[in-house]
Amino acid sequence: MSVSELTRLVSVAPAAAEPAAYTPVDGGVAQVGWLMIALPLLGAAVLLFGGRRTDRWGPLLATALSWSSFVVGVLVILQLRGQDEAERALQLNLWDWVSAGDLQLSAGLLLDPLSLTFVMLITFVGSLIHVYSLGYMEHDPDKRRFFGYLNLFVAAMLLLVLADSYMLLFVGWEGVGLASYLLIGFWNHNPAYATAANKAFIVNRIGDVGMILAMGLMFATFGALDYATVHGAASGASDLTLTLIGLALLLGACAKSAQFPLQSWLGDAMAGPTPVSALIHAATMVTAGVYLVARSQHIYNLTPDAQLAVTIVGAITLVYGAVVGCAKDDIKKALAASTMSQIGYMMLAVGLGPVGYTFAIFHLVTHGFFKAGMFLGAGSVMHAMRDRVDMRRFGALSTKVKITWLTFAAGWAAIIGVPLLSGWWSKDLIIEAAFVGEGWRPWVFGLATLVTAGVTAFYMSRLFFMTFHGKARWEDDIDPHEAPLVMTVPMMVLAVGSLFLGAALWPTGVLDGWLEPVFGHAEHHEPVIPVIVIQVAVFVLMLAGVAYAWLRYGRADVPEVAPEGSFAVRAARRDLFQDDVNEAFFRAPGAALVDTLVESDRVVVEGGLTGGTSAGLTGLSGVLRRAQNGFVRSYALTMLLGVVAILGAVWVMQ
What we know:
Blueprint: H1 3-8, E1 23-24, H2 35-50, H3 58-81, E2 90-100, E3 103-111, H4 113-136, H5 143-162, H6 166-184, H7 191-222, H8 227-233, H9 239-256, H10 265-268, H11 274-283, H12 288-295, H13 297-300, H14 304-325, H15 331-351, H16 354-384, H17 402-416, H18 422-434, H19 441-468, H20 485-505, H21 510-519, H22 531-555, H23 567-573, H24 578-627, H25 632-653
Parallel strand pairs: 1-2
Antiparallel strand pairs: 2-3
Helix pairs in contact: 2-3, 2-5, 3-4, 3-5, 4-5, 4-11, 4-16, 4-20, 5-6, 6-7, 7-9, 9-12, 9-14, 11-16, 12-15, 14-15, 14-19, 15-16, 15-18, 15-19, 16-17, 16-18, 16-20, 16-21, 17-18, 17-19, 17-20, 18-19, 18-20, 19-22
GO biological process, one term: electron transport coupled proton transport
Subcellular location: Endomembrane system; Membrane
InterPro entries: NADHpl_OxRdtase_5_subgr, ND/Mrp_TM, NU5C-like, Proton_antipo_N
């Protein structure tokens, strides 16, 4: 590819694309597009309500239904490709859903290139993870429940991306939150795992506040919550309203996609079984925030302030995740930090506007393959090492688990940006786009993406070399062995995608042309630095990161106990004190407020008002009790006194 062709890839559209007119479904397999959601949802219902009777065949049913959803998605895509570009947004109305005052809303699905791209990623990678889980969870007594949760998650995620309104999207949004909570805390007999699930659940509820506020503003402004109406009328709203909606949506996106400042849950979420990490925290759930911003492009393109906020959040997060990843010794937490950083790249790209939307989705797809492959590889390593996760006690595993080593190497090479592999195609496009613009922005955002590319090469190479190379550092009683084929075959498929998917989608124009009806055509603009200079700089930084990691963790001896390190290293190990900040500014003040209210209730209400009233009533009852002595003469005297009192009152009133 020539320099001029590479330069052409970096461009900016002069204006927002007009909202596409949705074409009602009229024939074809799209009429049963709802099966994409219904099939895995059926699997979840059968496994979760069928009880122990489904133990033997339930996991196989769940896997088959996930693949069936993928097949339906492929057939819908083939139908869409047979139509004109202007008609590649099909709306499938299901039923009248909400009728409350001025809000009239139908439940329906939007089958367009953007939603179906996500369907392919969710169902294909998700189904491979189902297959992998057949081996990984083989001996778990609750594997039926695990597969039920997997199907529930896939169904909720598909509803999220296929919904034709923000309200129906929110139903899928909450379903994903519930399923992730159940999967992260699957082994909830371990208190730390249960705490991790609660943490993820609570942080995501903060994001839900943003979603609810955004929908409230939409209804107050547009009188509707469906995409067609909201996006079509967005240009008539005030700048302030659009900015508030954009910021509220960003709050929701930050929680779901683990973006700053709501990223603290992602590392702890590694408590779930490793297939959960691959499904939720690499390929699907953490991409929901990117989808939300991309789907709301007609709002963000009209509010530069909210768009800039998205870019800033992405830039901070991609640097944050890379710094944290440099110091993690837990293989899954190191991959989680990498996920945070890579989602930051995507969030920054969608914040750049029309130039970045397609690049973000492209990187989202390629990242789903190589990161899911590496998470499954981490699970295979744990399988070989009796569930150990400390990379300082690994080393030299390339000689013991060769298939895992080779497939993991494919993902590693892709994410660090080895030329012509998937990550090189997608991540470099985002870096080039970040250097487009005027003023301070291209320099700040461009340099952030450029430097982080070098840091990514370092910490991912550190992980790779500590795990598979150098001297063996495991205990004598451990005999590492390769995982069974049911686990390694999905890893092989994902490795092939890590190597060749980028070249299959981008130089051919397949993905760019497929998404153009959604994002519109972007005009060409030059970066502030020539593209060839950017590419050379990325390549040099990548080589430098790999070389430094090899010197530190490949060739040199790795201490089995982590040294104390500098302040920066200790800070990175503690996630840059994110939990400490949350504890000091949110949890501790909240707990103190609750304790104060409880004590106030005990002293003032129970001890003062309620307590005083109670004491008075107790004393009065004691007096009355003494009057009830059981003697007839006492009762007769009481009656006489009553009659005298009544007669006296009548005489006074006269």
